[in-house]
Amino acid sequence: MNKAKKVFYTVATGMVAGMVLGILFAPEKGAETRDKIRKIKRKLGFGNDDADEHRKALEELNDALIKELAIVKEKMAEL
After folding, report:
1. For residues 26 and 32, what is the distance between their CA atoms, to the nearest angstrom?
2. What is residue 72's predicted lDDT score, i.e. its pLDDT?
3. How many whole angstroms separate alpha carbon 8 and alpha carbon 18?
4. Which of 21, 40, 67, 77 has the fewest beta carbons closer than 10 A?
5. Coil, strand or helix: which one is 5?
6. Which residues of 3-26 are buried (b: 16+ CB within 10 A; e: fewer)?
7. In the 3-class helix/strand/coil scheme, how is 33-76 assigned residue by residue?
8. What is the structure's pLDDT at 5?
9. What is the pLDDT of residue 8?
């Protein structure tokens, strides 16, 4: 196995392990966490208008990430 594949598998394994551990050891229920996020959002002054702007930015980011993922898949296929 070449070096790029080893790095990819190591990073992927670390990400999966991190997600699993995060879920297993989360100190609060999801509803409580979302409630805290909403309170922080209000304190910082983010309103509904800001939510629309953030949604648009996230959609653009999502599109860019999909394109980058396609490029990564192509390069991985070449390996």
Report:
1. 11
2. 85
3. 15
4. 77
5. helix
6. eeeeeeeeeeeeeeeeeeeeeeee
7. HHHHHHHHHHHHCCCHHHHHHHHHHHHHHHHHHHHHHHHHHHHH
8. 81
9. 84
Terminal Cα-to-Cα distance of the chain (whole angstroms): 10
* Tokens found for residue 60: 């653009």
Q: For the segment 30-79, what is each residue's pLDDT rounded down to a tens digit?
A: 777 777 767 777 777 766 566 667 777 888 888 888 888 888 888 888 87
Structure-block tokens of residue 21: 């551990």
Question: Left, alpha or beta for 3 (phi > 0: left; psi -120 to 50: alpha)?
Answer: alpha
pLDDT confidence of residue 53: 74
Question: Do the beta carbons of residue 79 and residue 5 sit within 8 Å?
Answer: yes
